[in-house]
Every structure is written in structure tokens, then in C-alpha cells.
Design brief:
single chain; about 325 residues; alpha/beta; Rossmann fold; Transcription Regulator spoIIAA; 2 domains; six-stranded mixed sheet; 11 helices; about 15% strand; binds iron/sulfur cluster
């Protein structure tokens, strides 16, 4: 498979190997900004190598999973990190572990390898996976991944010490400790640019779920509190990315990713206090902008004109 911006690190014998798994197809995985953030963030640590895994199929026999980067079997990794966005993908976690001949029950693995899962599905309801996970991350990448990577280095030969070091007040649910502990959701106070990759994996032979483009997170969370909405509840803490950072990520990203298309990531783009300015400046840079979902009451004539000038020809209004 041909891709842009792949990381292939050599590593030393003591380098920690992380299998970064998205339990769905390649096309869905590569469209996830969280998955891309994890990939580049973990690999930014000298002591770690992260290689990617996806499911080859969604039902039936699954072949033994090997990493995209080096073809290394999942079983050879020290840590497996699953990024889980939809509950139906839980079954694919088990399919991948079984196909890799890794005991699916945490009690049978004894932390070798340690299996960690996070993402909206896990944050909202980790309990269906409790027997299978060593760590369920109830929090965001920026506040939880640095702790996981730091603490694992300190106790990599003793998985129990590693699990004991993870605190429920910092967003870590350790199912083996039972359900008595009160786990606090861990939010990033602000959206720091250093966690947002500009160079992103770009498949050259396959089409990502949203098409080719640079993913740019404009804001996170939503303050509107619609009763039916999972994302709006678990990410009710609304944060905006600064205009300057958005423009830098988009412009640099378009060079690294060899595409003029920007795919904005937010729950409601025009809730950003500088939404029109963002669109106007991206248009001035000669970029095409795709806005996945919009709320009807945030649209006016000026917004529609900007969307048109940004090259978008169909709208999803929620
Ligand atoms: S506006 Fe959209 S994202 Fe926000 S809570 Fe309502 S449905 Fe969810």
C-alpha cells in the first residue's frame, strides 16, 4: 500500500512497541483525527514506536493481524492501544485479539501485552469491554497519553505497577480494581497545537471515508446539550482552537499532505466565534474547505456564500 507521511522508526531493543489499532477498516481509521493524533504523538517519543493495525474485514475469519508499517505480528507488541469511536466496533477488538492469539480476557494476559482502549465509545460506556481491557481511558489524548507513556516507561517490566500508577481522578478506569472507584473524565483545558499533526497519513491507492484531505480540528465539544446526543454529553466542555493555529495547520498540512482540500473537524463549525474569518482566510490561501455538519440556525447568507466559495457543493444540516 502506498501512503504519504508514514513513520518507520528503527528503535533499539529497549524501545517500547505500541500496536495502535483502530478496530474497523483502513478507510475509516485513516479518516479519524484522533487516530492520526495518537500515531504521531506516540511516535514523537524517542522511547516508543507506534505501528498501525486495522481490521481486514468486518465479519467472518480474520487473518492474523500484522502492522501496516513493518508487517510485525500484533503479538510482538508491548502495548496495544485501541481507538474506539463506535460501540459496534467492540466486537472487532475481540476479533483482532483472537486472530493475533492474544488472550482476550485481561485476567489471562497478566498485562503482557497491556491492552488499553479509549475514544467516545469507551468514555460513554466502557463496561461491555471491562473484562477484556487492562485500562479504559475516560479522557482526552492530551491529558491521558502523556501519563500512560511516562508511567509505562517507569514500570514496563511490572504491568501491575503500571496499572497501580494510573489514577481514577486522571481519567483511568482499571476494571480489575472493580467499579467502586469514581473515575473523573479528563479534559484538555485548551487545544494545543503540538498534539495536532499537520503531516497526516494520506493513502495514495485507497479512498478514505471522507476522501483525501487534511483534517483540521476547529473546535471540540458542544454546549447545546441536545438530549439524544452522545458526543454533546461526553464533550459538553466546549473549546475553540485559535484562528492562527487553524490556519497554520491547514497551510502546512496542505503542503505535507499534497492536497488543497481541508476537512474541518468540529461538532458545529459555525459555533466557532471566528468561523467566518477562518473560512475567508482559508479561501484566500487557495484552499478548498469541507464542512461535515452544520446547524441550520448558524447559517446566514454570508456563511452560505463562504461555503460556496470554499468549494463545497452539498451540505449536511443537522
Ligand atoms: S448541536 Fe449537535 S453536537 Fe451539539 S449536542 Fe446537539 S446534536 Fe450534539
Amino acid at each position: 500500500m502506498r501512503e504519504l507521511n508514514v513513520i518507520r522508526k528503527r528503535g533499539k531493543p529497549e524501545t517500547v512497541k505500541v500496536a495502535l489499532a483502530y478496530p474497523s477498516t483502513y478507510e475509516v481509521a485513516v479518516s479519524s483525527l484522533a487516530y492520526q493524533m495518537l500515531y504521531y504523538y506516540i511516535n514523537s517519543w524517542r522511547e516508543y514506536i507506534a505501528e498501525r493495525f486495522n481490521t481486514e474485514n468486518l465479519r467472518g475469519h480474520h487473518p492474523s493481524p500484522i502492522s501496516i508499517e513493518t508487517g510485525t505480528p500484533m503479538k510482538k507488541f508491548d502495548m496495544i492501544v485501541f481507538s474506539v469511536h463506535y460501540e459496534p466496533d467492540y466486537v472487532n477488538i475481540l476479533r483482532l485479539l483472537l486472530a493475533a492469539e492474544i488472550p482476550p480476557y485481561a485476567a489471562d494476559r497478566k498485562g503482557k501485552p497491556v491492552v488499553i482502549a479509549g475514544g467516545p465509545a469507551v468514555i460513554s460506556n466502557p463496561e461491555p469491554m471491562a473484562k477484556f481491557l487492562d485500562v479504559a481511558v475516560i479522557g482526552e489524548i492530551e491529558t491521558t497519553m502523556p501519563i500512560i507513556l511516562e508511567n509505562f516507561l517507569e514500570s514496563r517490566d511490572n504491568p501491575q505497577d503500571f496499572l497501580d500508577s494510573l489514577n481514577p481522578t486522571q481519567g483511568f478506569y482499571i476494571p480489575a480494581r472493580g467499579t467502586e472507584e469514581k473515575v473523573k473524565m479528563s479534559y484538555a483545558p485548551k487545544l494545543e497545537k503540538r498534539f495536532h499533526p499537520t503531516a497526516q497519513i494520506q493513502p495514495l491507492d485507497r479512498e478514505p471515508a471522507w476522501g483525501r484531505g487534511t483534517l483540521v480540528e476547529v473546535s471540540r465539544g458542544c454546549f447545546r446539550g441536545c438530549a439524544f446526543c452522545l458526543e454533546g454529553h461526553i464533550f459538553s466542555y466546549y473549546r475553540e482552537r485559535p484562528l492562527k493555529d487553524i490556519l497554520e495547520i491547514a497551510v502546512e498540512g496542505s503542503l505535507f499532505n499534497q492536497t488543497k482540500r481541508i476537512i474541518t473537524v468540529s461538532l458545529s463549525f459555525f459555533d466557532h466565534s471566528k468561523a467566518k474569518e477562518i473560512l475567508g482566510q482559508l479561501i484566500d490561501e487557495g484552499l478548498e474547505v469541507s464542512i461535515p455538519s452544520l446547524r441550520a440556525e448558524t447559517l446566514d447568507e454570508e456563511a452560505l456564500q463562504l461555503i460556496y466559495e470554499a468549494g463545497q457543493r452539498s451540505l449536511t444540516i443537522a
